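Homework help board

Subject: predicted structure for assignment chain

Our instructor gave us this sequence and asked us to write out the predicted structure in token form, then describe one feature. I got the tokens but I'm not sure how to describe them. Can anyone check?
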Amino acid sequence: MNICKAVGLRISNLLIQKNMTLYRLEQKSGILHGTMMCIMNERNKNITLRTVMQLAHGFDMTLLEFLDDKLFTESNLDLE
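My token output:
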């Protein structure tokens, strides 16, 4: 799986885990709705570190906490 798909899945899992809506995440992270929809619908081919940091902030997590998931292991990611 590519990194963008992994980020989208991580967002989905955290929304359920934290009983949070996507709209609330957009508000807390400062990410525009259109950008969030591109991430969630896998239309975004590249995701920046800044965006991942904003997502982590929206979930009240550190960047390392956001990335601390099996989705982001080398065996799960296609890094090419």
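Reply (TA_rk): Your tokens look well-formed. For the description, you could write something like this. The helical segments are 3-17, 22-29, 33-40, 49-58, 63-67. That's the kind of observation they're looking for.
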